[in-house]
Each structure stands twice: as C-alpha cells, then as structure tokens.
C-alpha cells in the first residue's frame, strides 16, 4: 500500500469569535494517490475550513497536516506557496475564471509560479483543455462558454500542473444535475489516472456514488467509509 499523499492528524480549528467557533474538532483523514473522496456534511459543519487547512491556505489551531509525509507547518510562506503551485489544484463552485482571458490563457495561469515559460505554459494549457474535452474551445472566453464548459476549464487549470491532489469545493453547485454528473465523471477519471481528488459537497446525490465518503458534522469526522484497506 502506498504512503498517503495527504494526512490530517487530530486537526482542530477554533475561530476567535465570541463565543469561540469550533469549526474543526480533532479531525483525522488520510488520502492516497488515485483516491476519489467525498467529504459530505451540512452547511456550517466545517467542510470549507477543512479544505483550506488541507490545501495549506490556513493553519490549524492544533494538530498536523502532512503532504507526502512532510508537516506543512514547518514550511515558511514562500515554500508553502511553491508547494501549492506544484502539487495542489483547486476547483470552486463559481469557477473563478478570469473573464477577459481565453480558456487557454485561464488554464495557463495554473502554471504561474512553477518556472515554466510563456510558450510552454500555453502548450501545456492546450493539452489540459484537450484532456477535459475542450480542444475546440481554447480561444473562447468564459462569457462564451456554458457552465459545464467553464467548470471544465477550471478543472484543466487545476490539472495543468499535474498536481498530487485536487480539491473541489461544491464543484457542481452552480450546475444542473446532468452537467454536474458529467463533471463528477470527469473528476473520477482524473482520480483513476493517479491524482487524489477530494470533493467537498453538502449534496448526498453527489457523495453517495463515490467510492469513499467522509461525513463531517459539527467539525468532527463522524464516519469514513470505503477507504482502501492495507
Ligand atoms: N473566518 C471565520 N471566522 C469565524 N468563523 C468562521 C470562519 N470561517 C468559518 N467559520 C465558522 O466555522 C464553521 C464552519 O464553517 P465552514 O467550514 O465554512 O462550513 P461548511 O463549509 O461546512 O459550510 C461555521 O460555524 C462558520 O460560521
Ligand atoms: Mg463551505
């Protein structure tokens, strides 16, 4: 059995509100290459907090996050940004594309801070768009694309760096059911090719068919089913 790409060990997060908000309480999780994991829970249960901590965007109040075995807390800001640039892709509900840029230029932004030159970034961007079925849309701007196409562009942007792990926060939340199902199918193909994919959702129709389902409630992981066994 391979080592986990990501581990979350006894991670808690308390926001200094009055009274304090315990967004995460001693959460544990280990994710391996090629896994497709749904993190499911109601609104306010701590899903987005967990995602920003796993994605190294925020620090836990206590506990440890490791990427490929290395404790993230030991990295300085610059090292952490470099780690994110190379190893972590993000996909959001609202796509977060730059409206003035073509699809290929949006995807190429996924390679900023990796050291790749302009022509190389564009070449990889076109390859990534082809991989998500959008070879015929490279010169379109977001306003000329459907919702599902926009999300494919956002997925291509996450994938273009060939990350170890992709986090998708409610990736189907802005799409109709059929389009959302296609996006989930694409994410599961990406996992099959070896990238760990973590999908955050409050929607059981999205989570239930996934091979592994982690339920979170009041900041606690309450069940974790379908994890690969050693
Ligand atoms: N920056 C913050 N400051 C204070 N409270 C926060 C902050 N971010 C999230 N919370 C609170 O933490 C809890 C978990 O939020 P969140 O992780 O966004 O849940 P979910 O994504 O499952 O809806 C909620 O009670 C939310 O109000
Ligand atoms: Mg959320």
UniProtKB/TrEMBL annotation:
Domain of life: Bacteria
InterPro entries registered for this protein in UniProt: AAA+_ATPase, ABC_transporter-like_ATP-bd, ABC_transporter-like_CS, ABC_transpr_LolD-like, MacB-like_ATP-bd, P-loop_NTPase
GO molecular function, one term: transmembrane transporter activity
GO cellular component: membrane protein complex; plasma membrane
UniProt keyword list: ATP-binding, Nucleotide-binding, Transport
Domain ABC transporter: 6-230
Keyword Transport: yes
Keyword Nucleotide-binding attached: yes
Pfam families on file: ABC_tran
PANTHER family: ABC TRANSPORTER ABCH.1 (PTHR24220:SF86), IMPORT ATP-BINDING PROTEIN (PTHR24220)
Name of the protein described by the UniProt record: ABC transporter ATP-binding protein
């Amino acid at each position: 059995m391979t080592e986990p790409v990501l581990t979350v060990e006894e991670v808690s997060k308390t926001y200094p509100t009055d009274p304090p908000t315990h967004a995460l309480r001693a959460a544990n999780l280990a994710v391996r290459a090629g896994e497709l994991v749904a993190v499911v829970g109601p609104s306010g249960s701590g899903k987005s907090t967990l995602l920003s901590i796993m994605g190294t965007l925020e620090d836990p109040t206590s506990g440890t996050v490791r990427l490929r075995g290395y404790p993230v807390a030991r990295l300085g800001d610059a090292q952490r940004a470099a780690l994110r640039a190379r190893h972590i892709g993000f996909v959001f509900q609202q796509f977060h594309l730059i409206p003035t840029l073509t699809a290929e230029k949006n995807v190429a932004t996924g390679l900023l801070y990796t050291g790749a030159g302009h022509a190389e970034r564009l070449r990889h961007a076109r390859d990534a768009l082809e991989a998500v079925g959008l070879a015929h849309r490279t010169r379109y701007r977001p306003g000329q694309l459907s919702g599902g196409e926009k999300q494919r562009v956002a997925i291509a942007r996450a994938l273009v760096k060939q990350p170890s792990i992709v986090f998708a926060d409610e990736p189907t939340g802005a799409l109709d059911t059929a389009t959302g199902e296609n996006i989930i199918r694409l994410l599961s193909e990406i996992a099959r090719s070896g990238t760990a994919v973590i999908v955050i959702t409050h929607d059981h129709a999205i989570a239930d068919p996934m091979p592994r389902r982690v339920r979170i409630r009041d900041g606690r992981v309450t069940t974790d089913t379908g994890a690969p066994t050693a």
